[in-house]
Write a structure and sequence with these properties.
Layout (H helix, E strand, L loop, with lengths): L4 H10 L6 H4 L3 E3 L5 E7 L4 H13 L7 E7 L4 H17 L1 H11 L5 H8 L1 H6 L2 H14 L7 E4 L2 E2 L9 H4 L1
Parallel strand pairs: 2-3
Antiparallel strand pairs: 1-3, 2-4, 4-5
């Protein structure tokens, strides 16, 4: 019953919806024009977020090619905000592959890439991560999101009944 596609769609339909999710973050990994966008609202200093990141990474290659991953960073402190902006800057300057590798290392407690980005001349002179970060922060404040990690499927909260690993059967 759990893997019934209609039940899955109905459960998503009944969950909270964030219809403007695509405009909130330009931090995408994968096909930006995919029919299915999995949004991960994450906090860089959140242990469950690190675990969720590893679970989602384990699904790579098992999900359809028409699925994209989007990141929105929740940063409750100035220190976390600094690192979130550094990661956004790294994405904008070096692309999704370098971003993805750096995020993997971050969640394995290697902050070198992001520390280097924050301390680079390019970051301090040309950093355009501020406007991107403000979109993340505004979205989180507008919808009063406090729980991380939060998973959205095309803007709908993944119901508690489902695990992220179930997506390989549902998408």
């Amino acid at each position: 019953m759990k893997y019934d596609e209609e039940l899955f769609k109905y459960s998503l339909y009944k969950s909270n919806k964030y219809l403007d999710y695509r405009e909130v973050s330009s931090v995408f990994v994968g096909n930006k024009n995919a029919k299915v966008v999995i949004t991960l609202i994450t906090n860089l200093f959140c242990t469950p977020c690190a675990y969720m990141h590893s679970r989602i990474k384990a699904l790579e290659g098992q999900l359809e090619e028409d699925v994209c991953l989007q990141y929105i960073f929740l940063s409750p402190t100035e220190e976390i905000e600094k690192y979130s902006k550094g990661l956004i800057s790294l994405y904008k300057r070096k692309g999704e592959s370098e971003f993805s590798q750096s995020l993997d290392r971050w969640f394995k407690n290697d902050r070198t890439d992001i520390d280097n980005e924050i301390n680079s001349k390019s970051y301090n002179q040309e950093c355009d991560s501020e406007s991107e970060y403000i979109k993340h922060k505004s979205f989180i404040e507008r919808y009063d999101i406090h729980r991380t990690p939060t998973i959205l499927i095309n803007g709908c909260v993944l119901p508690d009944f489902y695990e992220v690993e179930d997506l390989i059967y549902m998408l």
